[in-house]
Amino acid sequence: MSLRDILIHPDPRLKKICAPVAEVTAETRRLADDMLETMYDAPGIGLAAPQVGVLDRLLVMDCEKGEDATPDPRVLINPEITWTSEALNTYEEGCLSIPEQYAEVTRPAEVRVRYLDIDGKPREEEFAGLWATCVQHEIDHLNGRLFIDYLSALKRQMITRKMQKVKRERAKA
Question: In sequence order, which residues have a C-beta less than 8 Å from that of residue 154 and are 6 or more positions away?
């Protein structure tokens, strides 16, 4: 396993629609392992393949937080939301590709997702609360959408300018 660089917005790869994973291979498993290690190191609760420059429909997440929490890493390949609740939740979201920027986003409180697991087996699972928010946020990445796309144009522009400055500063370092 190895850490991967996380792309910072604005980067054109973050706005691309990702291709389905045709077959779960050793390379797919290695990518998932690297992404989990990168996510935990960041630290974050979710990471989608385009955030590490891979335009495949694969995401990892683990919403178990706190020092005493037992890790519950998930790998979802070709995830597809098949149902959403009418009830909504609003969470202050952040993103590893948009560091230190947060905003409230309202999404369905519960979702059902069909996906392939790391062994290539079809699964369907319902997520609620933070897990539901996280999986929707990461699936958005696979569709070329960022959480700031839910914000007003002014807020989005302000965050984008801040990220351009962060990228310039990192390039000088």
Answer: none
Peptide bond into 20 cis (omega under 30): no
pLDDT band at 69 (very low <50, low <70, confident <90, very high): confident
Exactly one of 124, 126, 138, 169 is catalytic; which is it?
A: 138
d(CA 141, CA 31): 16
Alpha helices (H) along 52-152: 129-142
Task: Give the pLDDT score at 170.
Answer: 87
Instruction: With CA atoms as reference, report the closest residue to 90 among 146, 132, 62.
Output: 132
pLDDT digits (tens, 9 = 90+) for 114-145: 999 999 999 999 999 999 999 999 999 999 99
Domains and CATH numbers, the chain: 12-172 (3.90.45.10)
Distance of alpha carbon 124 from alpha carbon 105, whole angstroms? 25
Active site residue 27: no
